């Protein structure tokens, strides 16, 4: 009668002492009947006992706490003036805008002369074009440029600083 060989996992279960009775009885039969199985089992048994005799260092239960306590935390990097360039630019433009509006209100409120804007009636095509399409195109281009600058100067540095580095 030809018996089926046990798998390596079943043999290691036998060596660890956690095999079922059915596998143990099959193992005993194979040891008595098959010299090839006995030689293979002896090799695996030698490997098993060699591995069991090795002194394997196990990490302590407080390994994570000890590691985190000994890690030198990197100092907080101060932001350079170039990373604040966007805010500096916006502040300067706001000051310039407020000063310009203030000067205009001051001088025009004290002025007694009336400013007359000349009206040109012959150029209605240019007038319609400039008020409709040209203004919309210029506003769209300005919006795209402002969004590109905002993305490059504000959003990109912000998300680059938030990136978690694992190395």
UniProtKB/TrEMBL annotation:
It comes from the Bacteria. Keywords: Membrane, Transmembrane, Transmembrane helix. The keyword Membrane applies. The chain crosses the membrane at residues 87-109, 129-150. This is Zf-HC2 domain-containing protein. It comes from Emticicia aquatilis. The lineage of its organism: Bacteria, Pseudomonadati, Bacteroidota, Cytophagia, Cytophagales.
């Amino acid at each position: 009668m030809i018996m089926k060989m046990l798998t390596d996992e079943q043999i290691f279960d036998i060596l660890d002492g956690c095999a079922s009775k059915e596998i143990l009885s099959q193992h005993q039969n194979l040891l008595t009947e098959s010299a090839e199985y006995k030689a293979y089992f002896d090799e695996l048994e030698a490997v098993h006992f060699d591995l069991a005799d090795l002194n394997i260092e196990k990490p302590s239960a407080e390994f994570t706490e000890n590691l985190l306590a000994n890690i030198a935390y990197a100092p907080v990097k101060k932001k350079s003036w170039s990373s604040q360039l966007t805010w500096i630019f916006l502040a300067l433009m706001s000051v310039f805008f407020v000063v310009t509006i203030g000067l205009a209100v001051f001088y025009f409120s004290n002025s007694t002369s009336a400013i007359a804007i000349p009206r040109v009636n012959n150029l209605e095509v240019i007038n319609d074009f400039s008020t409709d399409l040209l203004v919309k195109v210029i506003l769209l281009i300005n919006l795209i440029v402002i969004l590109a600058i905002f993305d490059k100067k504000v959003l990109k540095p912000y998300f680059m600083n938030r990136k978690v580095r694992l190395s």
